[in-house]
Amino acid sequence: MPTQTQVEIKANGNPFGSHRVLEPKGVLPQPAQRVDNNMDYIYDNELLLEVETLNIDSASFTQIKKECNNDEEKIKAMITKIVGERGKMQNPVTGSGGMFRGKVLKIGPKLAGKIDLKEGDKIASLVSLSLTPLKIEKIIGIKPGTEQVNVVAKAIIFESGIYAKLPKDMPETLALAVLDVAGAPAQTAKLVRPGNTVVIIGAAGKSGVLCAYEARKRAGIMGKIIGITSSDSGLAKMKEQGFCHESFKLSATDALACYETIHKVTGGKMADVIINCVNIPNTEMASILMCRDGGIVYFFTMATSFTKAALGAEGVGKDVDMIIGNGYCKDHAEITLNLLRESKQLRDIYEKLYA
Ligand SMILES: NC(=O)c1ccc[n+]([C@@H]2O[C@H](COP(=O)([O-])OP(=O)(O)OC[C@H]3O[C@@H](n4cnc5c(N)ncnc54)[C@H](OP(=O)(O)O)[C@@H]3O)[C@@H](O)[C@H]2O)c1
Questions:
Q1: What is the DSSP string of 26-63?
Q2: By three-state DSSP, how is residue 126 classified?
Q3: What pLDDT digit, counting tens, does each position of 140-178 carry?
Q4: One domain, residues 189 and 161
Q5: How would you classify residue 325: left for phi > 0, otherwise alpha for psi between -120 and 50, otherwise beta?
Q6: What are the 10-residue block averages of pLDDT along the chain, 355 residues in total?
Q7: Where a domain ends, among 101, 136, 166?
Q8: In this structure, is residue 305 part of a structural domain?
């Protein structure tokens, strides 16, 4: 029998979590500078979780690794410092967070009976760490080659927060990795039409490979999927995976080279849909220039600048629809977990790194 977690219960929690905002007052937890991460009490509409693994957002983790010269101890110290100062794992440079995997310790009395969870259930949070109150007791280590950080920690999910119960048919760390980027393939399914030419930037990455697979399915036999990546290893991976009809080694920070390449392969028509899955800044212009007039640019990357995208498109006279990669899309968790059930190849790719 699991032992009951004893915590004080406070009344009148706000559904969006504004009651935990310390600074500045009156804003919601995501834009807040600092949130209350005291885990000795919960509000009546909160979930208290024991956190086992943090999955740091790739744009954030890439920035932290660079600043810490890839030194694991320095990375751990930086994560501890950020969470100590902000009460949440929100990278001050990228503004982004990530998500976590953990176990339900306590369900606020106002939620009891209204949600499909019981204490002891294992879940992945589907709201960003950039708004999630988090208290880290200890960082155990970082899973090599991933953004997964094993910790002893506690977190709060607010009443409006979303989560997914971890499936029984795959390892938890694997499900966590897939659920982190669940919005991307689910949106791809909605955006890509039969016959479309689709460019996926970062197509060998975690979200990119899922998008490439889904785009190929949706574009059908008349469609064309083009993958872009900046490293030799990425290019080799993309070719081996085989989801893209054409694969190019190009940097998405080099807008003109990207434009010229896509101009050539499409005979000047350019692409109908661009899906940007990179983890670095300054890729807005390549995305815009590779798209045809009237096409769609989907910015899944957290390193996107609204100003650069909006003013950049205007500056080159491009009439394109630009979509901000909302991490949430209806049924995204189930849609994306099903991709791994449907394709053994995708599952093998993920298992190699995360299982
Ligand atoms: N919207 C949301 O809710 C949400 C949720 C989760 C993640 N994200 C964001 O989505 C993005 C991708 O996440 P992920 O987990 O898929 O990242 P990932 O696995 O690290 O993949 C990033 C990819 O970008 C490629 N890349 C890096 N620099 C490039 C360049 N200059 N030109 C072309 N390609 C380049 C990398 O390949 P090479 O090294 O070969 O270039 C890599 O394959 C990140 O920005 C992340 O923060 C958004």
A1: TS-TTT-SEE----SEEETT-EEEEEEEEEE-HHHHHH
A2: coil
A3: 999 999 999 999 999 999 999 999 999 999 999 999 999
A4: no
A5: beta
A6: 76 96 96 98 98 96 96 97 98 96 96 93 96 98 95 98 94 92 95 98 96 98 98 97 97 98 98 97 98 98 96 97 90 94 95 85
A7: 166
A8: yes
Alpha carbons 35 and 13: distance in angstroms, whole number: 14
Domain contains 160? yes
- Domain boundaries, position 268: 183-349
User: What pLDDT score was predicted for residue 223?
Assistant: 98
Q: Indicate if 112 and 190 belong to the same structural domain.
A: no
The pLDDT value given to residue 1: 45
Residues whose beta carbon lies within 6 Å of some atom of ligand 1: 57-59, 96, 180-181, 183, 201-202, 204-208, 228-231, 234, 251-253, 277-280, 300-303, 325, 327
**If phi over 0 gives left and psi between -120 and 50 gives alpha, with beta otherwise, what is residue 338?**
alpha
Here the tokens at position 102 are: 């953990």
- pLDDT recorded at residue 3: 57
Q: Give phi and psi for 136, each to the nearest 5.
A: -95, 125
Token code pair at residue 275: 């899906």
pTM of the model: 0.93
Pocket test for ligand 1, best of 65, 279, 326 (most atoms within 8 A of CB): 279
Q: Specify the number of domains making up the chain.
A: 2
Same domain, 77 and 138: yes
Regarding whether 233 and 94 lie in a shared domain, the answer is no
Question: Is residue 209 in a domain?
Answer: yes
Residues 124 and 192 in one domain: no
